[in-house]
Design brief:
Elements lengths: L3 H6 L2 H8 L9 H14 L9 E7 L5 E6 L7 E9 L4 E9 L28 E9 L3 E7 L3 E8 L5 E8 L17 E6 L4 E5 L3 H5 L4 E8 L7 H10 L32 E5 L2 E7 L5 E4 L7 E10 L5 E3 L3 E4 L8 E3 L5 E6 L7 E6 L4 E10 L2 E7 L2 E7 L3 E7 L5 E8 L5 E8 L17 E2 L9 E6 L5 E10 L4 H6 L15 E7 L8 E6 L7 E9 L5 E3 L3 E4 L5
Parallel strand pairs: 18-20
Antiparallel strand pairs: 1-8, 2-7, 3-6, 3-8, 4-5, 4-7, 9-10, 10-14, 11-13, 11-15, 12-13, 15-16, 15-17, 19-26, 20-25, 21-24, 21-26, 22-23, 22-25, 27-28, 28-31, 29-30, 29-32, 32-33, 32-34
Protein name: Protein NDNF
Subcellular location: Secreted
GO cellular component, one term: extracellular region
Length: about 550
Amino acid sequence: LKMSWLWLYLPLHLLMATCLCHSIKAPTTSSQQSFKADLFNFYHSLILADGKETTIHLLKDIPKRYYFVLEEGRVLAPFSITVTPCDVPIEWSILVYKSPPGFPEKATPGDHDTREVSKSQKAPSMVSTIFNYKGNSVETYMGMSSHSALYLLEFLSTERDTHITVYLTTDTTSGHLYPELPTDPRIDVIGVGHTTVTLTWKHSPSVLQHRESIQYCLLVNEKHNYKSLCAAETAIRSSGMKLPPTLALSLSPYLLEPQQVMILSNSELSIINKVSGGEVRQVCMGTKNTYTVPNLSPSTQYYFDVFIVNLLTNASAAYTGTFARTLEEPEPKVMEMKDGKVVHVVLDGKKQKFYSLQYQARHKKIHFTFQLCRGQIRVHITRNGKTVASENLSGLRYLSLKGKLLDTYLVQLRSTEESNSSVKVQASPHFHKPLFPLLPESLKIKSFSKLRTCRSVTIAWLGTQEESKYCVYRKRIEEDQIWKELQSTDRCSGPESRHKSEKVLCKYFYDLNLQRAVTTETIKGLEAGTFYLFDVYLFGPSGIPVRYHSKVVKTRKKC
């Protein structure tokens, strides 16, 4: 029987299915072609394509098998198989089914009867495993194949569902799908700073041959190195970051310029994403083999992977990843605080740095006063190295702390917004000499809609049991400027920052009964259908004002 050995070693289910289409006769050349065609059509999904990268999806604990047979007439032809795991480690192996020695490959002339192969005709099994691997590295097997051999590739994932890519080629002379790595594929760290790391690597031979279609791409993250671009993309997607199907084909190579990122647009150098595992960024830098990664966090370990990408085929190869830890940030300068002296601190929200103030107690009981001027700020206070207070500031805040003489207090302030924030701070043992006036329960200004007219507005605010001075200011404002004005307001600034024409009046009042400690004021001489911003300033014994929350009111358009 011509090709009878193949029937012996094909899996049983394949043999049975094929027998539905053929009687086992000594086939002619045409019947051989028919056999191959039926075999191909029935098991098309299980035949590995030659010269094409194939994506294979694996279910946990379910092996998947692919077959590969050389065309007839090709004896001892070289071939290579490259397998790239895109997530978890996998197991894969190559088995070869060879024709048994002395087993007839051709039928006896004139013998055309249907017959079965007897047990005595079955030669010992000629199945052997020529390669096996377990792991998540990119592995390539190169060998010589014979037309009288059938190859079986088996893949298995034991951790979870995953996918891999497999590239089979029997044409090893016309070039490589994957870019070539240099003899030494390591990435060298040649410089480390507080917020930067400088890397260099040896050029790929592919860059010299195909400069226009080859690009280096760098991946930076805080978790671990990746052994392939496929694995990196899978991990990034699983973390919640949205990516296009591939990094390399997001932009045409003719549109790419050095230091442009392909995964977003041609107008950005890189993209930085916050994910569950920290920060991930991707950047492509053309054919440059030295790059300084900017804007890193101090005292943080980063992992760096470089991929050489063929923009025409989307195939890539990974250099051996490296890692580096940025230098610790130098200790911030600490400002000494003096009793009763007010310190005005402005914090840069973009840098997210702590500003430190130190105070040495000369009394057992210490009083800290914070007046939030702009933005959002978090305060952290330690006494002799131990935390005694930590909270977000809002408006005006008093903190009374009791300790020992000569205790050292460290006050650390940090902006919790990207925009700049500012705060006034005072430390003093004398609470009976407060920096700020006694405050009412609320610093809100109320307006009465029913009392609005085209020319006047009535507002009200709470007072205290202590006689104090209140000054009212107004400012005409456009509707599209309201949000910006309210957000940029410096709550620590006093009337000295206002134009004289904005002042409406000043008055004194108090009431020992807090239920009646409220005052109203009708502001006249306004324009119809116009927005106005109203502010009230409260002055205490120290003369330092406290600003109520600004109120925007619009006069009636028609009366």
